[in-house]
């Protein structure tokens, strides 16, 4: 087996293990429900209410694990994939919880022979800990609505993130409700142990990966801005120094969530624009929004808080000895870092940089000449047509890199450009296993 294939097998194994654990826990939850006489006690509506409640709780725990950014999973699967699964599972949580509320209310109303609205009042205000569950449900609905694409586009990240913190309160309130009235807790020691362990491990993963590890690393490395370089009127490169940076497990192609001391409440996902050398970290930022525009005027000496490194867009994904790097716009930053890493390894490299106002081209040209890589800069509008049709179409790519199918291809750029290039590569017959992309908008 080729050594470079081993990391990819690790990524596949991580995905399979995650799916297997979710499936196994679903089986356990169902088994505990059956052992608790879930199919024989009460009527069918109440039983469905209990079962959807258990599945909703399990899906909520899965969400916690996906958003915990556990290094083992994140480094193999990538934050973009984990975030997509987190978003998808979130809607399952919402629908399962709503189904739980509806079935339980209808079931109790049927058993008591009371009107549905009257039963709602009885459950919320006169049943132990149901008010907590009602608040938890309301919080989940708010989080779910704010995560809809239309709402998400209208919200600033800080506001959206603040709303999402309510999901942690919903987890705690829902768990307290489950502890006090859930039959899997009240009547089953095994069920109590299982759910306590499940919630405990999930919350511990969040606390360790999202809080303890970043605090430890920032205390150890004491990051500060050491230099600022202007690349263009709206692009700036920031060099960040600190202590013992050789102990930070960062690789070319990865990114951090950066916070700066005078705007610590804002977290920005910026990729490294140079290969980590153990002495400094470097980011290159274009003014695309309020946060990145503010960063254009940053000065040396500012304290930096960094969470990461994150991302699986690294050399560990490689399956071939030859590499093609394709960058679009500000997606050039991780590509530039990967070019440096592959150049130092003496690899066969080709680079295509697509952009209207390309930056870092002088650096990339210098590296390409040093390692004898083929470097193409494609400028002009996105609908530009050249000698062989569209500039990033199949014939043009084939003309620039005839041996494309024998290479691993790394693509980073705006979503539209990335999707179009992936389609072109598929049309040229490149296997999906040789095409590597990652979306760096962690909140999208």
From TrEMBL:
Keyword set, alphabetical order: 2Fe-2S, FAD, Flavoprotein, Iron, Iron-sulfur, Membrane, Metal-binding, Oxidoreductase, Transmembrane, Transmembrane helix
Domain FAD-binding FR-type residue range list: 218-316
Molecular function, one GO term: 2 iron, 2 sulfur cluster binding
InterPro entries assigned: FAD-bd_FR_type, Fe3_Rdtase_TM_dom, FNR_nucleotide-bd, MRET, OxRdtase_FAD/NAD-bd, Riboflavin_synthase-like_b-brl
Keyword Metal-binding set for record: yes
Subcellular location: Membrane
Protein topology in the membrane: Multi-pass membrane protein
Gene Ontology CC terms: membrane
Keyword Membrane found: yes
Protein name: Oxidoreductase
Record field: transmembrane: 53-72, 92-110, 130-148, 160-181, 193-213
Source taxon at top rank: Bacteria
Pfam families: Ferric_reduct, NAD_binding_1
The protein's required cofactors: FAD
